[in-house]
Amino acid sequence: MSSIAIDRLETDGSTIECEIRPSADLERFFTGEPFRINYDCAIEDVPDGVLAIPVLANVCPVAWANGADVYVDEVDATFARALEDVKASLLGMYDFLEGGTLYAKRTIDAEPASGAAAADGSDSALLFTGGVDSTCSYVRHRDESPTLVSIRGWTIAPDDSGAEDWRHLRERVSSFAAERDLETAFVETNALEALDHAMLLAHYKRFVDGAWYSSVGHGLGLLGLCAPMAAARGIEDLYVAATHWDGIDLEWGSRPDIDEYVRWTGTECHHDAYDLTRQERLDVIADYVESEAPGLELQTCNARMDGNCGACEKCYRTAVGLRLSGLEPTAHGYPFAEDDYAEIRRALEGGEWVLGQDERYMWADIRDRIREADPEPESPREQAFFEWLLQADLEALVDEAEPPLSHRLFRAGARNAPTPVYNAAYPVLTTAKNGLDRIRGR
Which domain of life is it from (predicted)? Predict the structure, then answer.
């Protein structure tokens, strides 16, 4: 019987570490490295049932993909019930998921944090990067003065290669928070090092539009990472900004029917701004810029964390969206010139960017704004781009962005290789992952 056991869960001040012990048939999906997570607050008084949430939130989707049961000593009762709801949503979304059962020696109803831990700061928190979605959610909930939570271990690597990116993100978020008298919380984990994300991608990429974590695991996984911190700080409401919006029915790892179910004793999670398209979120930000934050800069780049490159698909897409919301991109972090419109068209038509269905919807959202608002172009180049986009076949542009055949064959080989052979080839697979596993941050 396929199974995954969570063993030797230990805490040391602000750090959690535990062992993940899979049955032999599931070993290829784990590296053998202990699961670790570090907080910037003490968690020693947090109940074991809540301390187990981060690893369970990241391991259980892997178990469900293989019909495996998960074993743990203790779990928060509220979270155990939440897992059943999230599992039902994911199984309804993906045919390849099989399900499984969580077995705990003890299921506890923990006492919510109270007293000084909750009194020192806000009782709400928001996962925050400084991008369009999380900035819009901050604007919507700024009256709550939410604690801004940033996580290292997904888009920013937990090893030395991610150190500079993490420093840039911390500095940017800390500055944003200080200007608004907000608290911050910084979380670091090796979750996607303990899970063999390269093998998960190789095995399941054929079933999903993005990568494993973006398509399956990240709503539950990222929110679950916050549980001990939320318990220690007395956080009652935890917000995660929506990537998509009502009317987009895409298979994605963070949706209302996942995130809204995630909860544990004392904390409820919320999938925020699902009622707004990306362009409408930029409108919210534009109103905030006009009324309160004229110098606001966004950070959305897929290529760097110390500013926006201005040349990747996401930078261009955000710059055009800012223009349509009445903001000048160069005033808010995006180098942009009229000549860039021709470059955007050339790159889209030439299939230079690997696009998923969500990018298609986002460019369609921009096209809808052009069609509905009929904005006055600022230049002949802008007018020519608008006219092209109104007629472009966006579905065909996505179809032309299929990853190379060599990458697809490599993934197929990894799926079918015996575990010892795969382990020997792991460095090569990891290198390939860097090129084809683009974990999308919207």
Answer: Archaea
Beta strands in 51-128 (DSSP E): 69-76, 102-108, 124-127
Report which of 424, 40, 412 is spatially closest to residue 202, judged by C-alpha positions: 412
Cβ contact 250:358 at 8 Å:
yes
| pLDDT score at 333 | 97
User: Looking at the chain, how many residues does it have?
Assistant: 442
Domain that holds residue 330: 296-399
Domain assignment present for residue 430? The answer is no
Tokens 């916050």 found at: 226
The structure tokens listed for 185 are 């919380």
Residue 355 has what pLDDT? 87
Residue 110 structure tokens: 């923990």
Residue 109 lies in a domain: no
The answer to whether the CB of 259 falls within 8 A of the CB of 219 is: yes
> Is 322:282 a contact under the CB 8 Å cutoff?
yes
- The β-bridge partners of 150 are 186
The residues, any chain, with a CB within 8 Å of residue 225's CB and separated by 6 or more, are: 37, 54, 57, 58, 151, 153, 187, 189, 191
Question: At which residue do the structure tokens 């599992």 appear?
Answer: 87
403/437 Cα distance (integer angstroms): 10
| Total domains in the fold of the chain | 1
In this prediction the pTM is: 0.90
Q: Check residue 412 and give its pLDDT.
A: 47
d(CA 366, CA 389): 9
Is residue 330 in some structural domain?
A: yes
| Amino acid at residue number 189 | T
In this predicted model, what pLDDT tens digit does every residue of 159-215 receive, in sequence order? 999 999 999 999 999 999 999 999 999 999 999 999 999 999 999 999 987 889 999
- Report helix, strand or coil for 125: strand
* pLDDT under 50: residue ranges of the chain: 115-119, 404-416, 418, 421-422, 424-442
C-alpha dihedral sign at 242, 56, 158, 412: negative
- Do β-strands 184-189 and 35-38 pair in parallel, antiparallel, or remain unpaired? antiparallel
For residue 314, list its beta bridge partners: none
Q: How many CB atoms lie within 10 A of CB 8?
A: 10
Q: Is residue 48 part of a domain?
A: no
